[in-house]
Amino acid sequence: MLPAGHLGCYGHLSEGACRLCGTERQVTATRPAKSGRMDRMADILLFSYGTLRQPEVQRTVFGRELDGRPDEITGYSLGEVLITDPAVIAASGSAVHPVLRPAPSAAGIPGTVFTIDAHDLAAADAYEVDDYTRVLVPLRSGAKAWVYVLASEAPA
């Protein structure tokens, strides 16, 4: 859960100056990729079906808009959860957020899969309130991605 009013720099997880405290953070952890270019840490797949697809939420959480591709998750149904964290409500514009619940026979839920790094994943973890937990799931495309689901009903 995020401290109210300090969403943009929580843990200084995105590159650039914090809007509230003004301190700078630069991403310096790079490694050579097999292609020869420098990558920011290892690539991680994150599937979003809800607010993390909103450009304004991405700018607040990650400090930039993410590029993603459509995909789908199966074995879950879409529900709603009431958010009480003021910073998360301010970022998303709503107190009611979608949430995935296990439902083995449910039809697929469309969403977007983003390729991110460990800093981005930590920022997403900080944004998601305690009602959510992150699990690794297969997508319709065959890729495996992290996704946030209802914590009280998450698979063990």
Write the CATH architecture name of the domain at 44-150. Answer: Roll
Query: What is the CATH superfamily label of the domain at 44-150?
Result: Gamma-glutamyl cyclotransferase-like
Q: Rg to the nearest angstrom?
A: 16 Å
CATH class division of the domain at 44-150: Alpha Beta
What do we call the CATH topology of the domain at 44-150?
A: Hypothetical upf0131 protein ytfp
Give the CA-based shape. Answer: globular
In whole angstroms, the N-to-C terminal distance is 22 Å
DSSP E strands, number: 11
Order of helices and strands: EEEEEHEEHEEHEE
Mean pLDDT: 80
Task: Give the DSSP E fraction (strand runs of 2 or more residues).
Answer: 35-45%
Put simply, the count of helices is 3
List low-pLDDT spans: 1-39
Query: If strands are numbered along the chain, what order do they take across the biggest sheet?
Result: 5-9-6
**Secondary structure category:** alpha+beta
Instruction: Specify the helix fraction band.
Output: 10-25%
Largest sheet: 3 strands, antiparallel
Domain Gamma-glutamylcyclotransferase AIG2-like: 46-152
Keywords: Transferase
Pfam family, one: GGACT
Protein name: Gamma-glutamylcyclotransferase (GGCT)/AIG2-like uncharacterized protein YtfP
